[in-house]
Amino acid sequence: MKMGYGVKPWTPEDEERLRSLISERLRAHEIAVKLHRTVPAVYKRAHILRLSFRRPLPSSMRADE
Fold first, then answer.
1. Taking the model in full, what pTM does it have?
2. 46, 48, 28: which is closest to 38 by C-alpha?
């Protein structure tokens, strides 16, 4: 795999930390700072891992209730 200048590969530990920080509801820019990554890199890896930054609606706002 060819990597560009300055590209830092994601380790399994980085990916686990990403999962943890997303579950703690940190915003992408906060995660990027903690992981020493760019915001687009955080979004891209989250997408690859099928993780979502979306927050569920409060139950009072859900249409199914």
1. 0.76
2. 28
Q: How far apart are CA 4 and CA 49, in angstroms?
A: 21
Q: Give the mean pLDDT per block of 10 residues along the chain (65 residues).
A: 76 98 96 97 97 79 63
**d(C-alpha 39, C-alpha 36), whole Å:** 10
- For the record, the structure tokens of 32 come out as 């990027």
Phi, psi dihedrals of residue 6, rounded to the nearest 5°: 75, 10
Closest CA to 35 of 21, 47, 49: 21
What is the phi-psi region of residue 25: left when phi exceeds 0, alpha when psi lies from -120 to 50, beta otherwise? left
